[in-house]
Structure formats: structure tokens, C-alpha cells
């Protein structure tokens, strides 16, 4: 555990410190353990740094709720890299962690060599869209605070985005791992780092020169469209669709996912 002023960031380091370093950022309701199977495959060649994002896992915040937002979280992670004497690394983010990874790439471009964005978006383009989404995020956060976490998780994964994930034979195991989270903390994360609160990153894409690998699942039409638009605006972005997977690619098709990541990083 490291104390970064208001952040007590829980993290794991796996592999040899002489190898290329990957910072891994999980999605909403997850934690660093989400990446355990991936790290097992990547750590023979890479030094893997996985973190629990604010509101998730064993990371704790000693400060106001703005500590959970994207800009402050990004800064806390840069401070963590400084503490660990990691000047430059590879970056991989899934969903909410992918939105954060893109924010970090665009705001701290000297810190990252190559970036994998799994089912991630640059946010919503207009204030009207963001306001509408924020209203929805706040309602869901309230539901989180007032319901049993297991019930909430079944409600959350009932969305069209996760239909293929729900068919996975390991879906119940995924639910089980997420029950370690604290619903009050998850609500703070959603209120402050949900898509409704995220600043739009669309207008910054054209200036990005860091190589991006944009991954979307075969069954995830929404993020295929988003990735195609990102690639059209950002010459440094490479688009790839992973077969037999929906939104959570690394869970649904780990072999093809890790193969794509390795090929890109190598």
C-alpha cells in the first residue's frame, strides 16, 4: 500500500522489474483481481502493475468526494508511478478504466508508450448528453446505496451491453468477486467518474501521437461504432474487433485478447 496524500492506493506488481511495465486499469464494479488471469499470461514477458481505482477494492480515500473524479484519480496514479520510479510505461484500460486510460494518455502523453483501450469511449460530445447521462448515473448511484450489492450486480449486468457476458459459464464467479466491493464507495465512483461526469475527450484525439489499440467485441456494436469514429479522428489509433466476445473482452475471450495485446506491445 502507498500513501499518496489523500489516496491509499492498493496495487499489485507481478513479473520482473527489468521487463516492460504495464499499468492495468479495471472497469466499474471490478478491482485489480479482474486482471489476474491476464497477468498470469503476460507476466512472463511484462512487469504488471494493477491498481484498485477509487471506490473499488482495497483502495481508500481520505478526502472529499472530488478525489473520485477523473482528473484527480489520473493525478493520483501519476503520483503512484512517480513513487514507484516508473517514468514511462505501457497502459491498458477496460471500460471505465479505459476512459481513464485515454484521459491519462491525452493529459500526460510523456508517461505512456503504447495504450490498449478495451471497450472504452472518449465520453459524450455535448453538454445535453452529459446532463442526461449524469441524471441516470445519479439514480443508479442512489440504487447502489439503497440495495443489496448482489441484487444490484444482477441489475447492472442485465443491460444489453452484457448479454454475452451473462451467458459465460464463469459469470457467477465474476459476480462473486465483485461482492468484495463496498456499495457506498461504488456509488461515489459512479457519481464522480461515470460517463455523465467525464469531460469530452473527442476534440483532443486528433493531436494524440501515442499508438492506441482500440478493442471491441464482435457482439458489441456500440463500441465498434465508437472505435471506428476514434480511429477516423486519430491517425495513431488502430482498430481491432475480437471474436466471440461482447463488452468484457478479456473475460469472454482471454486468449485472443492477450494475443492482440502482445502483438501490439511487441
Give a description of the structure.
- The chain is an alpha/beta fold.
- It is 42% helix and 18% strand.
- Helix 2 packs across helix 3 (96-107).
Characteristic terms for this protein:
266 residues; 10 strands; single chain; alpha/beta; three-stranded antiparallel sheet; 11 helices
Low-confidence stretches: none
The H-and-E topology, N to C, reads as: EEEEHEEHEHEHHHHHEHEHH
Using DSSP, what is the number of strands? Answer: 10
- Tell me the structural class: alpha/beta
Strand content: 15-25%
The side-by-side strand order for the widest beta sheet comes to 3-5-4-7-8-9-10
Shape: globular
Task: Summarize the helices and strands and which ones pair or pack.
Layout: E1 2-4, E2 7-9, E3 11-14, E4 21-25, H1 36-42, E5 47-51, E6 60-61, H2 70-83, E7 89-94, H3 96-107, E8 112-118, H4 127-146, H5 149-156, H6 163-166, H7 171-178, H8 183-193, E9 212-217, H9 221-233, E10 237-242, H10 249-252, H11 254-265
Parallel strand pairs: 4-5, 4-7, 7-8, 8-9, 9-10
Antiparallel strand pairs: 1-2, 2-6, 3-5
Structure, briefly:
This protein has 266 residues and is of the alpha/beta class. The protein has helices at 36-42, 70-83, 96-107, 127-146, 149-156, 163-166, 171-178, 183-193, 221-233, 249-252, 254-265; strands at residues 2-4, 7-9, 11-14, 21-25, 47-51, 60-61, 89-94, 112-118, 212-217, 237-242.
